[in-house]
Amino acid sequence: MITLRNLEKYYAVGPGRYYVLRRITMDVAEGEFITIMGPSGAGKTTLLSILGMLDGNWGGEYYLMEHPVHRLNLKQRAELGKQTVGFVFQQYHLLDSLTVAENLDIPLSYRNVKASERQALVADTLDRFRIVGKKDLFPSQLSGGQQQLVAVARAVIANPRLILADEPTGNLHSDQGREIMELFSKLNQEGTTIIQVTHSETNAAYSHRIIRLRDGWIE
User: Fold this and answer.
1) DSSP string, 126-180
2) 41 in helix, strand or coil?
3) What pairs with residue 9 in β-bridges?
């Protein structure tokens, strides 16, 4: 599903370069559940942003479902991302001006789902995550844990082929965190490819394999 060849990301610092990622070469098969681990500053979140086509400034080759992402323009990348990827951000990235229900509706609108179907999917997802009572609230009215639940719900609502999750349980208490990881495990068993970044060995145990980064390199 994913092929990376010599992927690199750097920032210009004076006359030199500061590399965040160096010569990343890896393959992810469809249906895999992969964990990326490493110390702070290792490049984990940067790699996830590139995989999710949120960061377009990098070198090397990236193929997603045989699409050569490195050859696509920004608009093509954005369209491929909207149709394929569900992203759980560490900082939620919920839209403050929209209610919980409206935030959940956004990924469905990208995929041109009929309004009646969207309403049903939103209702089902609110029920699945036990946040029906929050549907008319705005993100600022929610706790950090509740915002995280909404962010996870938004990522999975459109049944994406690939879920990218950056510390998906970081703001949840242990019971909520376990429920989210078990949900990811179930989605993975149904065929969804999942790549998560986590510091949690408990969360990592749900995955098939671990890729460890250090100083921008795969160890």
Assistant:
1) HHHTT-GGGTTS-GGGS-HHHHHHHHHHHHHTT--SEEEEESTTTTS-HHHHHHH
2) coil
3) 21
Residue type, 51: L
Whole-structure pTM value:
0.91
Q: Which two tokens stand for residue 131?
A: 């946040």
Query: How far apart are alpha carbons 185 and 156 in whole angstroms?
Result: 12
Q: Which residue type sits at 66? A: E
Domain ranges of the chain: 31-57+72-218
Q: What are phi and psi of 62, to 5 degrees?
A: -140, 120
Token pair recorded at residue 111:
């995929």
Pick the CATH number of 31-57+72-218 from 1.10.1670.10, 3.90.76.10, 3.30.460.10, 3.40.50.300: 3.40.50.300
Q: Phi and psi (nearest 5°) for 148? A: -65, -40
Does an H or E element contain 75, and which? helix 74-84
Q: Which amino acid appears at position 211 of this protein?
A: I
Angle at 146 between CA 181 and CA 175, to 5 degrees: 40
Give the C-alpha separation, 4 to 177, whole Å: 30
Q: pLDDT tens digit string along 96-139? A: 999 999 999 999 988 878 888 999 999 999 998 999 999 999 99
Closest by alpha carbon to 135, among 120, 148, 127?
A: 127
